[in-house]
Amino acid sequence: MSDQAQKFVKRAARHYRWKLQSDPGFLDQVTAGLELNRTRYGYYLCPCREGWANKRKDRDITCPCDYAEEDILDYGHCYCGLFCSQEFVASGQLVGPIPDRRPEHLYPE
What fold characterizes domain 3-7+18-96? Predict the structure, then answer.
């Protein structure tokens, strides 16, 4: 995980009082995707969704995405599994697939 991406995700988790994914390999993989997207597009586009490569069109899926808070409340983790609730991490549960809240019309065709 790059230092810049690592600082970003730690700062975001602290700000929202979330925990980061506890599996170091999984955490590195998602964070590497964020860093790659920041290099490509200039912003932390969610690595788990297809974006437009347009900051304005992608603002809802710029990390942490607009759907993260509700996903964490309902499922214990965000769509990517990067951010988790404190309770989810304490329970020892594993991150799994959850429904994507992003409306279909916001995805590129």
Answer: Ferredoxin Thioredoxin Reductase (3.90.460)
